[in-house]
Amino acid sequence: MKLKNILEENAEQLYALMRIVIGILFFSHGFQKIDRMLQGTFPMDNILMVLAAIIEFIGGLAIIFGWKVFLFAFIASGEMAIGYFKSHQPKGFWPIDNGGEKAVFYCFLFLFIAAKGSGIWSLDNIFKKKYNGNKFKEYK
Q1: How far apart are CA 116 and CA 105, in angstroms?
Q2: Model confidence, pTM
Q3: Residues 67, 16: Cα–Cα separation, whole Å
Q4: Which end of the chain is more exposed for a tag (fewer CB within 10 A), N or C?
Q5: Which residues have a Cβ under 8 Å from the Cβ of 72 and sit 6 or more positions away?
Q6: Rounded to the nearest 10 degrees, how much is the dihedral formed by the CA atoms of 38, 42, 47, 52?
Q7: pLDDT tens for each residue of 96-115
Q8: Domain residues of the chain, as ranges?
Q9: Main-chain phi, psi angles of 117, to 5 degrees
């Protein structure tokens, strides 16, 4: 069996695995910020940083478990875009030069996840029972 066939036959599972892994990575950023808040070493006077911590923590969990993925991935994409233009873009035009590659990558990956939806292995799929096995579909 060809590798291409194996990947195509398992595309739904690979997408779900990607969504979960990306959710774990995003959650870990939020967890780190929340932990710093509890230790008193986080800039609590910076409302955008506090909001980023909340989005990353809650949004990461929602994306991991596949709950309201469209909403949380879309918000996460926006957070990453704002983070890029606020923190990285002023340092230079190209993301490779201004250190913004991760922010751009996350921004577009979350936009893709928002467009594709929860997929299989998700709470949305379990609770709504509306997953179409041939297409990724978001549930409202």
Answers
A1: 16
A2: 0.87
A3: 12
A4: N
A5: 58, 59, 62, 63
A6: -80
A7: 999 999 999 999 999 999 99
A8: 20-128
A9: 90, -165
